[in-house]
């Protein structure tokens, strides 16, 4: 699954367009490599998102099969490490 779509489905970003813009800006990394929006996410990958004052790191636990998931199901697919 594409990283921009994954970030949107697991409720890390509110819209896929925001995820795409973040990837274009170079603030999204997968396993310490800057990721384009089309980069595939796999189980076990670490996704880092750099903000001005901090960096959030998430570990991918599973890939969702649906177009959206409820916020309370987020921990089934991704866990925040930092």
TrEMBL record:
InterPro entries xrefs: RqcP (IPR025490), S4_RNA-bd (IPR002942), S4_RNA-bd_sf (IPR036986)
Any GO molecular function: tRNA binding
Any single biological process term in GO: translation
SMART domains, alphabetized: S4
Taxonomy, superkingdom: Bacteria
Domain RNA-binding S4 residues, every copy: 1-62
Entry keyword tRNA-binding: yes
Protein name: RNA-binding S4 domain-containing protein
Record organism: Campylobacter volucris
């Amino acid at each position: 699954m594409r990283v921009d779509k994954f970030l949107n489905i697991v409720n890390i970003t509110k819209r896929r367009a925001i995820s795409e813009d973040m990837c274009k800006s170079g603030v999204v990394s997968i396993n310490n490599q800057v990721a384009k929006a089309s980069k595939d996410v796999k189980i076990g990958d670490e996704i880092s998102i750099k903000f001005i004052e901090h960096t959030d790191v998430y570990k991918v636990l599973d890939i969702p099969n649906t177009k959206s998931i409820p916020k309370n199901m987020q921990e089934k697919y991704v866990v925040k490490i930092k």
